[in-house]
Amino acid sequence: MRKREIRLRYAGLVNFASNLISVFTGMMFVTMTSRRLPEAEFGLWYYIGVVVQYLVIPAAMTNYWLTRYAGRGFRVGKTGLIVNSIVMLVSLLVYSAASPYVMYPASEYEYLQFIIMLVALQIPAEYFTSTLVALASGVAPQAYGYGQLILETSKLIAGYFLVVQWRMGLPGAMLAFIAAKYAYVLFLALYLREDLKGSFNPEMAKKWVKLWWLPAYGLLPAYMNTADVMLITYLIGSVPAAHMKAVQTVIAVILYSNALTSALYPKLLSGGTGRDIEVAISFMLMFAIPMAAGTIAMSKVFLSLLKPAYIASASALSVAAIQALLLSLTNLFAGSLAGIERIELFENVSFKDYIKSKLFYVPSIRLITRIAYLAALGLVLYITSASVSDPITIVFMWIGVKAFFDALTMLIYAFKLSREIDFKLPLTSIMKYTASSLVMLAVLWLLGIGQVECKVFIEAFKLAIMGVAIGATIYFTLIAILDGEVRRLFKDAINELKKMARLS
Question: H/E element holding 190?
Fold first, then answer.
């Protein structure tokens, strides 16, 4: 084993910035391709993506343990890569045998055989990507952020030539995506080349295969993430679901604040302390709180960017912004609980021991609260169905129930974590962030920039840029005055940029 040096704030900033940039590049790629593909081809592409996701699911069983052991200093990169390569070959065989059935929706498509070959080419790219990202998550979290920039840039360039210039349609869009994935794989392999050295560890591989059920169990709550959409659509119709999708699209930016804590998990795996948790909480909320406040202040304009009809859900978006804050903290506490668990390092550990561990506790709480949330949502809909038919009111209640259970889950995790490791909430910093954010919210609200109901996209876009610029200037000016730690962070960031500029 060897000690890992995880730079908590540096890796978090890299990944956060990468995610924000990816929002725009991803939108550009989707817009560029969707406008040049017939609806049938665009829908077929979405279907193919779902098929590939199911074929790559087995990699998660290995990647779960790869991250944990790599984060503790074990040289397991090659072991993870070989195990997942074997699983990948099995998935390719399954796909080859089942392709006539799974690709049935494309049976009338002119280039069906070519599409089948492209999917077979994409599967290895997905396996290699997920494996290397899992390794990076344990040893160098910032690699993910740098790699994302390469992925998005490659995708845009390849898409421009293959789809726009050469008009290759769906095959061109798929080729652009696949080429970008392999560029991502090449970058990660080079970045992590030292961690891919060493020999294959058959005993470690056997242990991971034996414990496949634990990460599989952890995936169960994730599979229930869309159950509420199905419930609402079945009972009420698709209009509330459309408004919820619009709201979630906007608050996704707030949830990107989780990227700021991407280095916390490997930091704890390698022997981090409660102080690291405190730093991560403060660092995440420094950005998450003002983004939530800004979303509330700019609710109508942000929803106008999607479609004027969604402006009616502005009040629901304000509640969803708070819910996103709660969910971000929930994810941080859950990751911290898993990060401080060390049960896999002990000898002669029984099945019962794993059941008692925090690795089982974390997904169990998520599963229980998720089931309770769905039951409560169904009950609320049943009780109010006779008196409430307005889809906007339904969305508001839907988000309210969701926020309640996210808060409950967060409190359970926080209480459990406080009993396992010594840490304190950085209340002084949180108060400074909140005060600065409230001033920003008040100014934006008085200016009225974010409460304009825009019918034209370009008008909404201009107001959104203006609001974000004004809000960011107000908030970061105030927080730099109030918090010396933030001033030091800005100074470190500037020095890091200067260092990168010299190297280039």
Answer: helix 169-191
Q: What is the largest CA-CA distance in the chain?
A: 67
Q: Alpha-carbon distance 162 to 155, whole Å?
A: 10
Collapsing DSSP to helix, strand or coil, 346 comes out as: coil
Give the Cα separation of 13 and 255 in Å (integer): 14
Question: How far, in Å, are 7, 10, 213, 458 from residue 504 at the CA level?
Answer: 21, 18, 46, 37
Q: How far is CA 67 from the centre of its chain?
A: 17
Answer whether 378's CB lies under 8 Å from 231's CB: yes
Q: Which residues contact 156 (CB under 8 A, 6 or more apart)?
A: 25, 28, 29, 32
| 146 alpha carbon, distance to own chain's centre | 16
Query: How would you label 367-377 residue by residue, b for 16+ Cβ within 10 Å and e otherwise?
Result: eebbeebbeeb
- Mind listing the pLDDT tens digit for each residue in 249-304? 899 889 999 999 999 999 999 989 999 999 999 999 999 999 999 999 999 999 99
Entry pTM? 0.89
